[in-house]
Amino acid sequence: MAAAAAASPADKERFICIYPAYLNNKKTIAEGRRIPIDKAVENPTSTEIQDVCAAVGFNVLLEKNKMYPREWNRDVQYRGRVRIQLKQDDGNPCLPQFPTRKSVMLYAAETIPKLKTRTQKMGGSDQSLQQGEGGKKDGHIT
């Protein structure tokens, strides 16, 4: 144990872990959600968490084959764990706006719905309808 305590916060083993279940509004607290349900996201993936954390400037590691121990569903969708360097060698936060792991989780949950992959999925049907109508209009003009 003494070796683990002496390890630098910059070591990859000392990065904080965030599993998608921590941010999932479909989970109860007993199932692993760690933020309020009104701030949580519907079925986040480890890749989405990695994207938003890397975009803000964190040192991020994605571990695709790791699983949250309380996750009973073994689908690929629920796999993955994101490791984030929260603190520097001197113990200060890497990014001052994120002093705690909870602040990182809340930021990720707030930002994931704004990702292009999420917004395109929501508006996909509208776009196809608009394209179809555009095709009809072009047909009348020619």
TrEMBL record:
One Pfam family from the record: SRP19
Q: Output the GO biological process annotations, alphabetical, semicolon-separated.
A: SRP-dependent cotranslational protein targeting to membrane
- Annotated InterPro entries: Signal_recog_particle_SRP19 (IPR002778), SRP19-like_sf (IPR036521)
Q: Per UniProt, what is one GO molecular function of this protein?
A: 7S RNA binding
**Could you tell me the keywords of this UniProt record?**
Cytoplasm, Nucleus, Ribonucleoprotein, RNA-binding, Signal recognition particle
| Record's compositionally biased regions (Polar residues) | 120-131
Q: Where is this region: Disordered?
A: 116-142
**Where does it reside?**
Cytoplasm; Nucleus, Nucleolus; Nucleus, Nucleoplasm
**Any one cellular-component term (Gene Ontology):** signal recognition particle, endoplasmic reticulum targeting
What this chain does, per the record? Answer: Component of the signal recognition particle (SRP) complex, a ribonucleoprotein complex that mediates the cotranslational targeting of secretory and membrane proteins to the endoplasmic reticulum (ER). Binds directly to 7SL RNA. Mediates binding of SRP54 to the SRP complex.
Family recorded in the similarity comment: Belongs to the SRP19 family.
Know the name of this protein? Signal recognition particle 19 kDa protein
Q: Which lineage is the organism of this entry classified under, starting from the top rank?
A: Eukaryota, Metazoa, Chordata, Craniata, Vertebrata
